[in-house]
Amino acid sequence: MSNSTLVQMIPFAYKLVFMICISLGLFSYTVSTWKNLRKSWRHLQRLHQIPCSHCLFFTSEYNLKCTVHPCKALSDEAIGCADYQTLK
Fold first, then answer.
1. What percent of the chain has pLDDT above 90?
2. Is residue 7 scored above 80 in pLDDT?
3. Do 38 and 46 meet the contact criterion of CB atoms below 8 Å apart?
4. pLDDT at residue number 8
5. How far, CA to CA in Å, does 78 sit from each of 2, 24, 67?
6. What phi and psi, each to the nearest 5 degrees, are found at residue 66?
7. Rounded CA separation 15/50 (Å)
8. Which residue of 5, 7, 15, 51 is 20 to 30 Å from 39, comparing CA positions?
9. C-alpha of 85 from chain center
10. How far is CA 40 from CA 10, 53, 76, in A?
11. Contact 78/52 with Cβ under 8 angstroms?
């Protein structure tokens, strides 16, 4: 190869490296967004398992959310509550 062909290939090499960097950045962004969406979806599914809002002992008040277990109300600890009774 002569020097003139190498000089002619330099702009192409810059464009190729630029496109590779942009592609890797977009791929990284897409993977990160996908992981965060999956994590958020799992967290929402877990929150929907909390039965407090349909319980007889739930008061809907800020200071006393549950008359039986006020510290556990509306938290992950309330899943599978032994004192849960549905509204009638």
1. 52
2. no
3. no
4. 80
5. 75, 43, 13
6. -140, 135
7. 54
8. 51
9. 31
10. 45, 21, 15
11. yes
Give the per-residue pLDDT at 88. 66
Q: Is 58 helix (H, G, I), strand (E, B) or coil?
A: strand
Contact 36, 50 (CB under 8 A): no
Q: Among 41, 42, 38, which residue's Cα sits nearest to residue 30?
A: 38
**Mean pLDDT rounded to a whole number for the chain:** 90
Comparing CA positions, the residue from 57, 51, 40, 42 lying closest to residue 76 is 51
- Report which listed range, 25-34, 53-62, 67-76, is most confident: 25-34
Phi first, then psi, for residue 34 (nearest 5°) are -60, -45
Which tokens hold the place of 32? Answer: 């990160």
> What distance, in Å, lies between the first and last C-alpha atoms of the chain?
87
Q: Where are the alpha helices (DSSP H) in the chain?
A: 3-47
For residue 49, give both structure tokens. Answer: 């398992």
